[in-house]
Amino acid sequence: MSHSMSSPRNIQLVFETYQKARLVFVQTMADLATRATNVKCLESAGVLELLRPLLSDGCSTVRQCAVVAAARLAEHDEGVARQILNSGMLTIAIENLNKFNVYYKRSALYLIRAIAKHNEELASAIVRLGALEHIVSCLEDFDTQVKENAAWALGYIGKHSEHLAGLVVDAGTLPLLVLTFQEPEMSLKQIVAGALVDLAQHKPEAVVDAGAICHLVRGLENQDPKLKRSTLCALGAVAGARASLGEAVVAGGALPPALLHAGHDAAPVRRAAACLLRDIVKHSVDLAQLVVNTGGCGPLVELLSEGTGGARIPACMALGYIAGQSDQLAMAVIEAKAVVVLVEILQSNEVQDADLCAAAWTLGHIAKHSPQHSLAIAVANALPRLLQLYTNPKSSNEVKARASCALKQSLQCCLHRPALEPLLHAAPTCILKYVLAQYAKV
Fold it and tell me: How would residue 424 be classed by pLDDT, with cut points 50, 70 and 90?
């Protein structure tokens, strides 16, 4: 080797060239990993074995890009996520979480959630590595994106099962999430609300005990539709679990804004509001009465006319739950002109089976109380259409079952002869016996 080649400057150049090559490699891998179609090719080329030592590289940018590349690969493919876990790559990232700068921390949390999102088995493995303690500590970080990624990871771990949600809650997560939800950054609020939805589905009592309800209700004052939707979903997950939790949500002041948001411009917000109202009224006559007294039937009936957006079915079910609780509440649903719209849904040829099932189910709950209630269904000409849906060979089994049940509930109270007569000639034996029984009463 010549003397010029072994000079300090040239030696330094070799190291600089090596560092640049590593940097170009990890940056290119991170870019390629953004496309799911590239994952198999990168995996077969041995990308994980090459990235592994770079997770602890001496250069901070190389380290961070290596973690991002691994996270993107894991996000797209469960098999790759499992390999990253089994090869110890995630262990390295967790151990380094609090050693390096804020960018590394963001990337390591991204890797955790990219693996956790796939299934309960992978999420459980992350917990066994002792990751929860590190993630929870990141909720107290000064950096907003670190807090966002931490909240996201906790939601992704907790959403898979009650056991995992319990471990996340036991790690002291909820008070910190509630605190973080009150911070001004909109994207942080959205992600924390999403994490609260994931945890509330399995541990609703813990969410209430952490004092989240009043803060979630206050969060509805924000104008951002994404935040409104997530917040309504979190309240719905709590309210739907048990009557006492439904009462806690109502006591926290959720009912007036829920009714207000049933008329929001954004379809996902309207749907989330309808789901929340459904989850409140299903528990008891008292909660249903409260919704009716607050003027709940009108907004719900308006949502029945929506063909798209997904609000129709939860609104329909909310009205069915209200009507099913008592004869007075069923009369309130009739007076809100719900029956006409429900029959229109049944008559339409462009609705999904789920809409037909929900409309039939709700009509049955309205009609079942008395001849007066059944008369409202009969006068709206619902019975021939229900019979048609029941006897139509093209109807699905679910539609047939719902139509049959609604017919029986309606006929057992119906004394309106003009509605009964057409059924005498068209009804099959299993329905005809109910028609004849009503004739005997008349």
Answer: low
